[in-house]
Amino acid sequence: MEIDRIIHEPARLRIMMILSGLEQADFNFLLTTLSLTRGNLSRHMEKLESAAYLKVKKSFKGKIPNTSYQLTQKGSKSLAQYWENLDSVRQLGNSR
User: Fold this and answer.
1) Which CATH fold would you assign to the domain 5-90?
2) Among candidates 73, 75, 79, 70, which has minimal Cα distance to 24?
3) The pTM is what?
């Protein structure tokens, strides 16, 4: 059982947890909710997107560009597997 290093990073875990409870969230919502810098949030989103854990949707609200994110099926499965693996590690620690 291996802990997914992409998800395990605290900011990315928070992003995944937020997205798991929503149909989708836009960049500004995540920026405000997570209190990260734009650059920092962008970098984390790139990592999650490159792992195919997120789907990115670019659109316009009027004339203003809007980027929203949605957890993919792979992302949902990977997050569930992450929690199972973490529970297994905890159980190993408790059995010693």
Assistant:
1) Arc Repressor Mutant, subunit A (1.10.10)
2) 70
3) 0.90
